[in-house]
């Protein structure tokens, strides 16, 4: 890092800012019109940028989608890593879920979550990117579940990989709900969500309860 | 019914067949290219029909989407009504979920589930249709949960409406998974799904267990 000149550092920070501005504009346009109906021209207008400048960073819509997914994925380890150090593993998992539902822990790409799934279904390239990012999140969560089992907080009889699949399906479903009803009142759902996760992860027999 | 002449009955059966053929063709085209990229011409070709014939039944893409959602919805009461008479309510709910995951109990519109969610997010007309159909399913499932509570099989402390929201989110998430990985091996997920649903619905203290 110390080898980089101040000039090249400024330049790279400026490039990061430009990329962020374009990706935010793309998310807004894709959310409004969908991937296919949104044009590169609309994204340029939303970002306040010339087509030449935009194409220098992103040559195609697919490259924009890829960068949006990658940006969300890049945030995940930072957001979920604390789960690997939590004293109360199950409590931390529940809290992460509740923070996700409340909007405090949502990826920048959330407004196009449904659109992304739809595109991943029919576009093998986007499907592969999505799979790669999902695998990373699943691997991290599987380590969290294994750690909870080692600490005696999660049922050791539970298959960690399948448990994460189930919890991910639940999170996907909540994300679908949030995408369809961004203003929904989720206060009633929160305790029910906590109940579902705690009971799912608890050991078979709970002495004293 | 006895008032209808054989000729008009034959005509209406033929109209039903035509509608079904068009909707199947539309699902195939939408799954392949998405709502926006799929053209009415492609749907005509897939259905082996002239544009004139197709437009007589469906004047627009929105009317096709509406009819696809409506067709799925029309099947739901028949598919889920047995839950209202099951002796083992929780077992029947689990079984319905497993049959859904295995493909035995999936709506015809399943291949465009992700596409539909994406369209519902940005198209208020499709959103309203989707909401109406969802409400019908939620109402039916809420009656199922209330019945399970009355029979002492489901925790009476559970809010039936919120419980259905949670179960629906889980089903939505599994549907997203199925749409993204139609050939995924779900055999490992099935027992984990059953565990999650049974424990979620069970009364707080389970004497003798």
TrEMBL record, chains A, B:
<dbReference type="InterPro" id="IPR009057">
    <property type="entry name" value="Homeodomain-like_sf"/>
</dbReference>
<dbReference type="InterPro" id="IPR050109">
    <property type="entry name" value="HTH-type_TetR-like_transc_reg"/>
</dbReference>
<dbReference type="InterPro" id="IPR036271">
    <property type="entry name" value="Tet_transcr_reg_TetR-rel_C_sf"/>
</dbReference>
<dbReference type="InterPro" id="IPR039538">
    <property type="entry name" value="BetI_C"/>
</dbReference>
<dbReference type="InterPro" id="IPR001647">
    <property type="entry name" value="HTH_TetR"/>
</dbReference>
<keyword id="KW-0805">Transcription regulation</keyword>
<keyword id="KW-0238">DNA-binding</keyword>
<feature type="domain" description="HTH tetR-type">
    <location>
        <begin position="16"/>
        <end position="76"/>
    </location>
</feature>
<feature type="DNA-binding region" description="H-T-H motif">
    <location>
        <begin position="39"/>
        <end position="58"/>
    </location>
</feature>
<protein>
    <submittedName>
        <fullName>TetR/AcrR family transcriptional regulator</fullName>
    </submittedName>
</protein>
<dbReference type="Pfam" id="PF00440">
    <property type="entry name" value="TetR_N"/>
</dbReference>
<keyword id="KW-0678">Repressor</keyword>
<keyword id="KW-0804">Transcription</keyword>
<dbReference type="Pfam" id="PF13977">
    <property type="entry name" value="TetR_C_6"/>
</dbReference>
